[in-house]
């Protein structure tokens, strides 16, 4: 009996064991849990990688933009690279460890490759695998790239330079900038200042500092004024690098006379004060004056043969010791009609320049009151002087000139001065124009 029972138990054991389901649920759960935890870990790690990519892209954008801003401020390609690299480092992306930072100015690839106004920033991050080490031999390499470019956003027909007192328009003056911008690179809250009963019309106002009075009742703008912006380019900066001749002597100017340009005479004229009815006639070319010029009421200066791209460049310089640079005064009742040359015969840096004050010495004062028949066509560049427009007359009245580009250390338009500035014809006359600069991310 007992043997039978034992025999049946032995014969049924394998069958019962095969049919026994106890522990299968635990095994299934263990396998499923491992898969679920792996997927959760991979999802979490993927989120870390995505976050790393976002941080890398933000840092690439910031680095490229900072480099482009350095270019817009007049820096070299090396300056742009240094600035961009520093910004990447400040955002946690140095050149050591598993991170690599590459800055190219100009970019080495893409649509802007070789563009000297663009900066490329590339950040590479090698991720260390965690859960993904179960599936991947190595972590992913995350690369982000950004390209920022400096572009022009329009033309400025008047520009006050960075180290001066800015651009001010006040009194009962009227300033009309036809389709162009009035700009100032000066710092401070009154980089551009409109006061009194001044009337101003322009495409816009653009400053690197503050813009005071720029939304007053007398201000009419196509686009709202912009303060604390990138500096506007100086179109005549190349003229400051020209080595001007030193003159030990000069030729006096007296009476009504026709003057001979430097290209023919190889000499300079002395400063002079033109009396009433005194007529000064110029022929195309470059004229150096070692003293101040005063054009008084009733006098005139003209260049009858300045046509077809021919014109004159008047350089106000000092004596052989360069102790001072000549001053310029144009009385409200003087008659001045002059055109700058499209191509200057002495130096290409003077192309399109009508007046240039030598910046090597102490600058003389610049006062331009114009007159009912005064027309100045070309660039007026006074890099070291305070330029004043004052008086009761009109310079460049409506339609008289389509190219007057005014750049000075400080610009003041006051009194009852009526000044019209227009750069629409400058491209065809060879006169460079100041460009409003903006930095844009393109790639």
> How helix-rich are the residues, as a percent range?
10-25%
Q: How many DSSP E strands?
A: 29
Radius of gyration, CA atoms, in whole angstroms = 36 Å
Q: Summarize the main sheet.
A: 22 strands, mixed
Strand content: 25-35%
State the end-to-end distance. 92 Å
Mean pLDDT: 86
Low-confidence spans: 1-7
Total helical segments: 5
What class, by secondary structure content?
alpha/beta
Categorize the overall geometry: elongated
Describe this structure in words.
By secondary structure, the chain is α/β, with parallel strands linked by helices. It has two domains: 12-139, no CATH class; 153-437, no CATH class. The protein is built from five helices and 29 strands. The strands form three sheets. The chain has a 22-stranded mixed beta sheet that branches. A five-stranded parallel beta sheet has the order 11-8-5-28-26, with no helix packed on it. Helix 2 runs antiparallel to helix 3.
